[in-house]
Amino acid sequence: MAFGAHLVTPHSHDSADKTDTALESSSRGLRVLGLSFAILAATAVVQAVIVAFSGSVALLGDTLHNFADALTAVPLGIAFWLGRRAATRRFTYGYGKAEDLAGLVIVVIIAASAVLAGYEAIQRLLDPQEVRQLGWVAGAGLVGFLGNEWVARYRIRVGREIGSAALVADGLHARTDGFTSLAVLLGAGGAALGYPIADPVIGLLITLAIALVLRNAAREIYHRLMDAVDPALLDQAERVLSQTPGVRGVGAVRLRWIGHTLRAEVEIQVDHDLSLVESHAVAVEAEHRLIHQVARLRAATVHADPHGPRDADYHERLNRHRETTTA
């Protein structure tokens, strides 16, 4: 059999290899966060200065959003740093789930920026004020768009490459920020044409855009907290297992995200007359193929059940126990 080589050859994907890959992913995430934080913070500071002497509430909303987007790098950075720590006897799966907790903090920050931007826009509608230095306001909106779009592309690309839902969500957040920055140009244009109400109206539209980002980010984080995975990943894992030499059948397949890496728990069936060593070799080969062919999968627990003879029930005792506990 092809898996027979594993009887005498050690499995090449040891825990050190997997740990090195996970650490490299976290390092890339930290680099992305550091650079994007610097760019967004600089963008927000420039906009804040212009807000101070222009009085534009639309630009204020965009500035608040950019500050919030920069701040989201802080909890994510802490999460990536924690994710680099080794598993312990208490946290046996490591600290990867800190990314999901960071996602919750990001959702709260986005929500706070939406509330503050909406409040300021409504206040300006009730008490209109002249917007000054419209050229500077328009320029600040353009700067905000360019900064956010660059950060968005960077975060989304790296987030997808390393499998970080929180980083991808943060990138989508930055992209929406870019379009809200362009909306500032509309507010400045409306004010220049003699419609000062355009500025707070654009501020309200920006608030709506932030709320839409909030909904999408909250849904993404909810899926991770509930251990949701793309069903296509399950299909792929089942195909890999069914094509592994020595596997006679595939039982339950479970996948879950631990931070930005996947872990699997799978059940396979092997010939009932194989020795323990031979059955283990099939299981090792199955894990080997899963790690190679399923993106971002770092480890798999493979349980081998005997296949045959006919009418044999190797789980009779467990089945009776389950029936008793669920009755």
Short description:
The chain is 68% helix and 10% strand. The longest helix is centred in the first third of the chain and has 40 residues. The radius of gyration is 26 Å and the shape is elongated.
Task: Give a topology summary.
Blueprint: H1 15-54, H2 57-71, H3 73-83, H4 98-126, H5 134-162, H6 165-192, H7 198-225, H8 231-242, E1 249-258, E2 261-271, H9 276-293, E3 297-307, H10 316-326
Parallel strand pairs: 2-3
Antiparallel strand pairs: 1-2
Describe what this molecule looks like in 3D.
With 327 residues, the chain is mainly alpha-helical. The protein folds into two domains: 15-225, Alpha-lytic protease prodomain-like (Up-down Bundle), CATH 1.20.1510; 229-326, Cation efflux protein, cytoplasmic domain (Alpha-Beta Plaits), CATH 3.30.70. It has ten helices and three strands. The protein has helices spanning 15-54, 57-71, 73-83, 98-126, 134-162, 165-192, 198-225, 231-242, 276-293, 316-326; strands spanning 249-258, 261-271, 297-307. Strands 1-2-3 form a three-stranded mixed β-sheet. Helix 4 (98-126) packs parallel to helix 6 and helix 6 (165-192) packs antiparallel against helix 7 (198-225). The model is unreliable at 1-23 (pLDDT under 50).
Which tags fit this structure?
Alpha-lytic protease prodomain-like, transport, Cation_efflux_TM, Alpha-Beta Plaits, membrane, 10% strand, 3-stranded mixed beta sheet, disordered N terminus, mainly alpha, single chain, 327 residues
